[in-house]
Amino acid sequence: MSVQDRPQYTTLKDLVNDIQDIMNVYRSNVLESIEKSIDTCGDIFIAEAKKVSPVDTGEYQNSWAKKKKSRQKYSVYIGNTKKVMRKNKEGKREKKLPLINVLEFSKEHGKPHVGKAVANSKDQIINTIAAGIEKESK
Q1: Torsion from C-alpha of 115, 120, 123, 124, nearest 10 degrees
Q2: Is the pLDDT score of 119 beyond 90?
Q3: Cα(50)–Cα(53) distance, rounded to whole angstroms?
Q4: Interval 1-13: pLDDT, tens
Q5: Distance CA 124, CA 38 (A)
Q6: Of 46, 72, 70, 41, which Cα lies nearest the Cα of 60?
Q7: Residue ranges with strand state E in the chain
Q8: How confident is the model over 89-102, as pLDDT tens digits?
Q9: For the whole model, what pTM was predicted?
Q10: Which among 42, 54, 51 has a CA at the least distance from the CA of 104?
């Protein structure tokens, strides 16, 4: 906006109100951009998690999913939906457990990999969010 095009303010309050309106629009645009970026970040993490997941049949590797929690803005839930049957002390199958828990924490069957996926995707996730904010600030 050039000097000639600027509005003529009669009071300081009018100027402050216009600045607040501009900041509210900017804030709204940045927050919307962050929301979109976070969704993209979920895809980035899932792609990396698939790369580092232990593979037996491929079912676990292909069971990564993301879900938007309706009450939580600026977040996305990422998990693995594959479950396995747990045996009780008598050796009978009794209940389904998330396979991710077995792979991450079992001393007997563990193959930890989620931390590696986080480490491998961290920079790309940060850059994605930063790029979204930067795009809105231009």
Answers
A1: -120
A2: yes
A3: 5
A4: 555 566 677 788 8
A5: 12
A6: 46
A7: 64-67, 77-80, 83-87, 93-98
A8: 777 777 788 999 99
A9: 0.77
A10: 54
SS3 label, residue 97: strand
Cα(30)–Cα(87) distance, integer angstroms? 50
pLDDT band at 123 (very low <50, low <70, confident <90, very high): very high
CA separation for the pair 34, 130 (Å, rounded): 9
Angle between helices 12-52 and 114-136 (to 10 degrees): 150
* Distance from the Cα of residue 39 to its chain's centroid: 6
Say how many C-beta atoms besides its own lie within 10 A of residue 42's C-beta.
Answer: 20
Measured torsion, CA atoms of residues 27, 29, 33, 34, in degrees rounded to the nearest 10: 20
Q: What SS3 class is residue 37?
A: helix
